[in-house]
From TrEMBL, chain A:
GO cellular component: plasma membrane
Official protein name in the record: Putative ABC transport system ATP-binding protein
SMART domains: AAA
Record-level Gene Ontology MF annotations: ATP binding; ATP hydrolysis activity; transmembrane transporter activity
CDD domains reported for this sequence: ABC_MJ0796_LolCDE_FtsE
Species of provenance: Lentzea albidocapillata subsp. violacea
Sequence ranges assigned to domain ABC transporter in this UniProt record: 2-220
Family matches, as InterPro entries: AAA+_ATPase, ABC_transporter-like_ATP-bd, ABC_transporter-like_CS, ABC_transpr_LolD-like, MacB-like_ATP-bd, P-loop_NTPase
UniProt key word Transport: yes
Entry keywords, A to Z: ATP-binding, Nucleotide-binding, Transport
From TrEMBL, chain B:
Gene source species: Lentzea albidocapillata subsp. violacea
Name the UniProt record assigns to this protein: Putative ABC transport system permease protein
Any one of the GO CC terms: plasma membrane
Compartment(s) where it occurs, according to its Swiss-Prot or TrEMBL record: Cell membrane
Keyword presence, DNA-binding: no
Gene Ontology terms for molecular function: transmembrane transporter activity
Keyword Transmembrane assigned: yes
Source lineage: Bacteria, Bacillati, Actinomycetota, Actinomycetes, Pseudonocardiales
Keywords: Cell membrane, Membrane, Transmembrane, Transmembrane helix
Length: 220, 385
């Protein structure tokens, strides 16, 4: 479903940095892929390309068979909103909005009307086991709860792929276990999961592990 | 994204941080408050000006000869009769102002120089002395040119006159004090002169008598009467007379209002420009702190156009709210000032709507540059923070 074809990413601020060397890679529906590697190895660059947050400098990237090179920012945005969900290390919950409103925000740019967005957001919060905190200010939630709310935001719009960038980086072991169990359950329901992590415990949770070293991607 | 969602998002962003929003919109709050309160106070004051003019000066006309010559025919009873028949004339009478005369209470007491003013009973009615004691002139006094005098309180005190029916000597001739008055409704120069019947004054010689006719008109008729009076008094040569009427209160009010309105609009405009710049600055600064949020919005499917529209909606909502709060403050200020001074506040509530609309437009303009900048933020920014 996701296919990188000799895709590379070079940043050029005076002298070129080859963050990701030419990579050919396919991720099928329903996979649970973990991406590991040292800091600065190119993991985030790989995730950005896969999540359509960035475009390859060379090569191609197909999503469900459609080549994404040359698509407008608007088109890429709507594709991203429809197919992908994102979970970040820093949660990125907006202050001044309840947990429920933050979850609804994930569907704001999609096709659903407000009532539908609310219903889906409530279902997603229920699914992650935080229905009782739906109207709480995120600042009053624990780190683990915040990340679960962020996961609810990512899945409320029923995406096909969930991208997680160090989802347990700010969590203690108990909360890490909760988040990992949640990701496993979502994957078991058919959601494709792609996780970047430093944590070996998280890395082994997937069904497939990719290692990135100096911009080279290798199957572990 | 639907327009309703856009507005809701903007309102959420603005209303969940009221303190920050109010500081950002302070310029528009002040601009709108200045706009509404100054225009409100102008209308209120205009109403006051008009009210005081209507009851006093606006009902007074003075007719003078172009050249103070020997011809006194225009002050004859026949001429005055024509004038009194004009529609809108309430009272009209002739007046003659003579030079200072040596005046004293008794022989041997120091002599004061007092101006004499000859008036007939209708002219006296126009002047409207507020008698402290005694009586005004009657037709009998006038017809018989009696030697009686009305003294203003200040002149009476100067002469040492303490009661009516006393005698004062003007040019060594004895006059009986008929009355003493404290104030006048019109012609304040009567407060420094001794008033005698018109015919009595006519018998006195003077090097330089000044003659005129004073008229009290119905409210609103002064301009019309001023136009007609010379013709009524001297049909054969109306141009030899000139009328002096107070400026039309409506015109005067409009002039005052126009002037103050122009100034207040300038002040409001300057404040509004400052408000626009302050919203623009605050919005530009807030983008730096909201990079992660904007990146997140892009990551979850927001297009650059969505980001642009949302920031524009936020600054517009800020401007509109600032305008509404400012307009409310303006109405409060106008009401409070009016209440304090005992005036009737005259507030056009449409001004408040105009202020809010103009401030909303200012907010929209202020948001253009920061919103355009925000569209350059890439979604990857959300991941990096």
């Amino acid at each position: 479903m996701l296919e990188l074809i000799a895709a590379s990413r070079t940043y050029d601020d005076g002298h070129p940095v080859h963050a990701l060397k030419p990579t050919t890679l396919a991720i099928g529906n329903g996979e649970y892929v973990t991406i590991t590697g040292p800091s600065g190895s190119g993991k985030s660059t790989l995730l950005n390309l896969l999540g359509l947050l960035d475009s390859p400098t060379n090569g191609g990237y197909r999503v469900s068979g459609d080549e994404t090179a040359g698509m407008s920012a608007g088109h890429l945005g709507s594709l991203r909103g429809r197919l992908f969900g994102f979970v970040f290390q820093a949660f990125h919950l907006l202050p001044g909005r309840t947990a429920l409103e933050n979850v609804e925000l994930g569907m704001l740019y999609g096709p659903h009307r407000r009532a539908e967005r609310r219903a889906r957001a409530l279902r997603a919060i229920e699914k992650i086991g935080l229905a009782h905190r739906a109207h709480a200010d995120p600042r009053t939630l624990s780190g683990g709860e915040r990340q679960r709310i962020a996961i609810a935001r990512a899945i409320a719009g029923t995406p096909r792929v969930l991208f997680c960038d160090e989802p347990t980086g700010n969590l203690d072991s108990a909360n890490t276990a909760t988040v990992l169990r949640l990701l496993r359950e979502l994957n078991a329901e058919g959601l494709t999961v792609v996780v970047i992590t430093h944590d070996p415990e998280v890395a082994v949770a997937g069904t497939r592990t990719l290692t990135v070293v100096d911009g080279h991607v290798e199957e572990a | 994204m639907r327009p309703a969602d856009l507005v809701r998002e903007a309102l959420l962003s603005v209303t969940r941080f009221p303190g920050r929003s109010m500081l950002t919109a302070l310029g528009t709050v002040l601009g709108a408050a200045a706009f509404v309160s100054t225009l409100g106070l102008v209308s209120t004051l205009g109403q006051q000006v008009s009210a005081s003019f209507d009851v006093r000066r606006a009902t007074e006309v003075l007719v003078q000869p172009q050249d103070q010559g020997a011809d006194t025919g225009w002050q004859s009873e026949k001429s005055l009769q024509r004038l009194r028949e004009l529609n809108g004339v309430r009272a009209a009478g002739p007046r003659v102002l003579l030079d200072e005369r040596p005046t004293t209470r008794a022989i041997g007491v120091p002599v004061q120089g007092v101006r004499l003013m000859g008036v007939d009973p209708p002219a006296l009615r126009v002047i409207g002395p507020a008698l402290a004691e005694g009586r005004l002139f009657t037709e009998y006094d006038e017809r018989n040119a009696l030697r009686i005098v009305l003294l203003p309180r200040s002149v009476a005190d100067q002469l040492g006159v303490t009661r009516t029916q006393a005698a004062v000597f003007i040019d060594n001739e004895a006059y009986t004090v008929a009355g003493i008055f404290d104030d006048v409704t019109r012609r304040p120069e009567a407060l420094t002169a001794a008033l005698v019947p018109f015919r009595t004054a006519g018998k006195l010689t003077s090097a330089n008598p000044k003659r005129d006719v004073i008229i009290e008109t119905a409210p609103g008729a002064a301009q019309q009467i001023a136009h007609q009076a010379p013709l009524a008094l001297k049909p054969e040569a109306a141009e030899a007379l000139r009328s002096i009427a107070p400026p039309d209160p409506k015109t005067l009010r409009r002039e005052i209002e126009d002037n103050v309105t122009r100034s207040s609009l300038m002040v409001s405009l300057v404040t509004l420009v400052i408000g626009t710049v302050s919203i623009g600055n605050a919005a530009t600064a807030s983008i730096a702190t909201r990079t992660a949020e904007i990146g997140l919005r892009r990551a979850v499917g927001g297009r650059p156009a969505h980001v642009f529209a949302q920031l524009l909606a936020e600054t517009t909502v800020l401007g509109a709210l600032g305008g509404a709060v400012g307009a409310f403050l303006g109405v409060c200020v106008t009401s409070a000032v009016s209440l304090w001074n005992g005036w009737t506040p005259v507030i056009d509530l449409r001004l408040a709507l105009v202020a809010s609309a103009v401030c909303a437009a200012a907010g929209l303009v202020a948001g253009l540059v920061p919103a355009a900048r925000a569209t350059r933020i890439q979604p990857v920014a959300a991941l990096q923070r």
